[in-house]
Amino acid sequence: MPETTSAAPASGTASTRRRQLIAGNWKMNGTRASGVALAGAVADMARRNAPPCDLVVCPPATILMAVGGRLAGSTVSFGGQDCHAKPDGAHTGDIAAPMLADLGCRYVIVGHSERRADHGESDTAVKAKATAALAAGLTIILCVGETEAQRDGGQATSVVGSQIAGSLPEGAAAENCIVAYEPVWAIGTGRTPTGEEIAAMHGHIRASLRKHVGEAADRMRLLYGGSVKPSNAAEILALDDVDGALVGGASLKAEDFLAIAAAARKP
Q: Burial of 48 by CB count in 10 Å (0-12 exposed, 13-18 middle, 19+ buried)?
C-alpha cells in the first residue's frame, strides 16, 4: 500500500507531507492492443523519469488482465472503475470487488459522477460498493462533486458534505480510502474551478471527513479531478489539501499523464 504520513495538521505543511497520487481513469476507452501499449508507455516513462508521486491507472474491465500483466514489476498500480456491492451472485454484467482483487487490482473507483448520473447510483449504493471494496482488500477512490446548477445555487458545500456522509463506508481510513473531488461541470469540459475554489472545497472535504474518521482525516489523500491537464497541473497540485489528481482524458496519452505526474509536489 502506498505510504501516507503520520498524523499532521489539516492543511498548509500537512499537504506537503502526504505523498501525492495521480490516477488515470480511462473510462470506456481502449482495446487490448491499445491498452497494453498505453500501459507500457506509462510504465516505461515512469521508469526512466520517476515522478515524485504514486501512479495508478484504471482501465475498462475488459482489459484489466492485459494491462495488469504489462504493468507487472513496474511502479504503476492499476484498479477498476467500479464494482458491485455483492461478492458474487446473479448480477449479470457486473464485477465483484473480490474479482478485481483476484486480478491484482489494488484500487477501485466508486461513486464517479458518471455512475451517479448515468446509472442513478445513490449515496447508499455507493457506500455499499465501497464497503465491499474494503472487504476485498482494495483501496477505494471515492468520488464526490456538485453539478453546475448546485454550485450556482450556493449548494456546492452542502451537496459534497452530504455525499461524504452518505457514501463513506465504515472502516474508511487513510490507508484504504482516497476521496476525489470532481465538480461535475468541469469533467471533460475544459473548464476548471479557480484555485481558490478548489482549495476551499478540499478544505471543506477534510473538515467533513474529520466528523466521521477523526484525526485520520488529516492523513487521507484528497484528489482533484475535472479537466486536469499538463498546462494546469502544477497550479492545482500546489494547492493546500490537494494530494493528487484523478485524470480523465489526459490519462489516455502517456506523455500528458506523465507530465501531470511530473508536476506533483515532492514529498
A: exposed
Catalytic residue list contains 170: no
Is 5 inside a domain boundary?
Answer: no
How far apart, in whole angstroms, are the C-alpha atoms of residue 147 and residue 213? 26
Catalytic residue chosen out of the listed positions 121, 182, 202, 204: 182
User: Residue 238: which domain range?
Assistant: 21-262
Region 214-230: mean pLDDT is: 96
Amino acid letter, residue 172: A
In a domain, residue 40? The reply is yes
Number of domains observed in the structure of the chain: 1
Selecting among 112, 146, 202, 204, the annotated active-site residue is 112
pTM score above 0.90: yes
From the CA atom positions of the chain, what is the Rg in Å? Answer: 17
| Contact between residue 42 and residue 78 where contact means Cβ atoms under 8 Å apart | no
Q: Which three cell numbers mark 63?
A: 482489459
Residue 182 among the catalytic residues: yes
Any domain includes 13 = no
Beta carbons of 212 and 146 less than 8 angstroms apart:
no
Q: What is the structure's pLDDT at 188?
A: 80
Rounded distance between C-alpha atoms, residue 187 and residue 177, angstroms? 22
Quote the Cα angle for 231-235-21, to 5°. 90
Q: Does a structural domain hold residue 71?
A: yes
Confidence tier at 159 by pLDDT (50, 70, 90): very high
Which CATH number is 153's domain given?
A: 3.20.20.70
Q: What are the angstrom distances between the C-alpha of 106 and each of 2, 54, 101, 134, 147? A: 10, 12, 7, 10, 29
